[in-house]
Amino acid sequence: MSRTVRNINQVSGKIIRIALRFILYAAIIFAVIKGISVAYRFGHSIFYATSVEASPGRDVSITVGKSTDAKTVAAQLKKKGLIENEWSFRIQAIFFNFKIKSGNYTLNTSQTSKDMLETLDAGPETQPAAATKETDEDTGLNTEESAQSTLPETSGGGTEIIDAGNEGEQN
Question: What's the alpha-carbon Rg for the chain, to the nearest Å?
Fold first, then answer.
C-alpha cells in the first residue's frame, strides 16, 4: 500500500470515529433531556395533580372491595376515565399516607387524584339516616323508618334498604 492510501485510510478512520462519538454524545444528551422532561411531568402529576375534565365534569360510581389495594383501585379509576396516570395515583397514596377504605363511592372527573384519595380515605358514602336506629323526635319513628318514608318507592312497591351485614334483605 502506498503512503498516500495509508494516510487516507487513517484520516477516514479518524473522521468515522469522530462522527460516531458525535452521534453517541448527541444520543446521550437527547436521552438526558428526554429523561428530565419525563421526570418533571411525572413529579408534577404527583405534587400538582390536575383533573381529567374541567368542572362540572361527570360523576362516576365505583365500588372498592374489602381487600382492594391502591394498584387495583388505580387501574379501576384509569379504566373509568377518572385519572390519567396510575403510577402517580399509587405514589400519592403512599407519599401522602392515604388509606383506601372499601365501599361505594361517587367520584367526579373534575376532581384531582389527590381529592379522590381524600374521598377514598374518608370512607364510603353514608346512606342518609339508614345507618343508625335513633328515634326522630318530630315523628316518633326510628331513623330507619324515617329513611324509608322519605326515600322514593321502587317499582316493586317498597323501598329496599340494604344493610352491610345483611345484604339483599328487604326491610
Answer: 30
